[in-house]
TrEMBL record:
This is C-Maf-inducing protein. Its main location: cytoplasm. The keyword Repeat applies. It is found in: Cytoplasm; Nucleus. It comes from the Eukaryota. The lineage of its organism: Eukaryota, Metazoa, Chordata, Craniata, Vertebrata. GO terms for cellular component: cytosol; nucleoplasm. The keyword Nucleus applies. Interacts with FLNA.
Amino acid sequence: MLPSHLEAQPGKSLFGIERVPFIRPKGNRACGVPHCISKGLETRLGLPASHTTEEEQALKKIYKYKKVLSNPSRWEVVLKEIRTLVDMALTSPLQDDSINQAPLEIVSKLLSENTNLTTQEHENIIVAIAPLLENNHPPPDLCEFFCKHCRERPRSMVVIEVFTPVVQRILKHNMDFGKCPRLRLFTQEYILALNELNAGMEVVKKFIQSMHGPTGHCPHPRVLPNLVAVCLAAIYSCYEEFINSRDNSPSLKEIRNGCQQPCDRKPTLPLRLLHPSPDLVSQEATLSEARLKSVVVASSEIHVEVERTSTAKPALTASAGNDSEPNLIDCLMVSPACSTMSIELGPQADRTLGCYVEILKLLSDYDDWRPSLASLLQPIPFPKEALAHEKFTKELKYVIQRFAEDPRQEVHSCLLSVRAGKDGWFQLYSPGGVACDDDGELFASMVHILMGSCYKTKKFLLSLAENKLGPCMLLALRGNQTMVEILCLMLEYNIIDNNDTQLQIISTLESTDVGKRMYEQLCDRQRELKELQRKGGPTRLTLPSKSTDADLARLLSSGSFGNLENLSLAFTNVTSACAEHLIKLPSLKQLNLWSTQFGDAGLRLLSEHLTMLQVLNLCETPVTDAGLLALSSMKSLCSLNMNSTKLSADTYEDLKAKLPNLKEVDVRYTEAW
């Protein structure tokens, strides 16, 4: 019988480890013996000694080993006892996590209380407990010991042979690193240890490949988010000293308002913005007639040149009384007349940054991981010090390029901001953005892929005209075909109101062969459109069944359809791609798309241009709420058929509230029915 002071507490095992139900192994057992102990040992319950349970025996053994290991004298004896303790836990027939976890807790305490062990003794202990780590996460103190070993002996075989399966298990399981920060830190130090080997990043690359698996689809859904979490934390740690120095510098609001309020600041590392080069200043001066004099905010730690402009857009301007933070680019004070922060990392931080940015690049090379990676990085989860660091943004550019080259919309759409009013990768890597280090090549690539999908809209063109017209014209002047097309669309859709700007765009287009050719085609189309409107043409048109987008385009380009009011494409094979031709029918009032593959992308384009449409039939089309919500801008709609679509009840209520003229609606076989 154990002493009374060693009784297990309610819901706890002998050493305070939480208990879980276990399955008793098969075999003859006397009736009446409890299956688990929750309020005391069986001996305290008055049971005969012959009825001592296997659990009580295991608890007694664990207590004995804990007592022996609490006062170590000879380490060869301690090591032997640890091995025996591990063997006991492995051979125990009890299916109880505490039986395996208790030895790890004992060893963890032993190591924390004895810091004068030799490296060889450390490795012997790690090898001894390795079998228990195959199915159990190491406790926090043991993680700290493992981290120290990775830092001090990164080339030890223990790192490869013992730590590898432990880290693989951590990455494959659901992990909340916020609650288990030392597990994340151990994973981070393990990867850095791999990077210290002779092969360096090749070893890390093979480790990433082993986590992904040999097939084209990773069978472990938690590996990617866990790896990204480790990468983000590691990159953040590289700039931690600079981040801590924010207390020393003016707040973002003070910088934005061009003033610094007095406050007590602690002396930490300096941060400063370098002065612009004379060439940039001279170029900017030619375009800044309406700008006021620059305001210089200075302190002993940070020097920031802030441009105050009287023509600032409302979205980028905030009053002095507004406590909201400015956009990311505003925070970084990036403008054509300002360069980025001068940040120099220490050798260790520099190696850490290089390793984990390289891992992000490796992750972006896997097709199945790229959509999730793009989604995880879309909110730009990096500190602004990292985004102001030229080395970091230059290395990360490879990842953004991979997103820009991916034809899948769920990938390249993540280049845009996660919500309105917030900057995205598109803004950061565009000319004038903090991360742009080229002549706009990546910017042109991003625009090309976005314009090729469902972003060929008036809204997107308006945003380019307002914020990136200068870079677009510069790239078009250099013969970039995508930018030439952008300028032509701006003219065609009447995006530019200012006559001088229109003339400048025309001059830009006519300065290159490709621009001249596209501008002539634009003029021909506009003349044809005016001719169609003058001559008229049929008012009703029905395409034959099985017609395609190409058939529709060929038909509309062959005659005069300026007066076409009723168009039926029912039961044809047209898709959203035909919307580019439909929006050029100025008189269209009735459109029948019954049982076609016309989707959300086409619907958004129609809603921006065919504002006079009165009757729309979308029965049995693949449209969803994402596209149907765009119809709220078509105030002239009086009849709308959404039969057998993916319409939700909330979207239906929203449409009814925003379309005052809607009188006939068919929502049968939808959620709103």
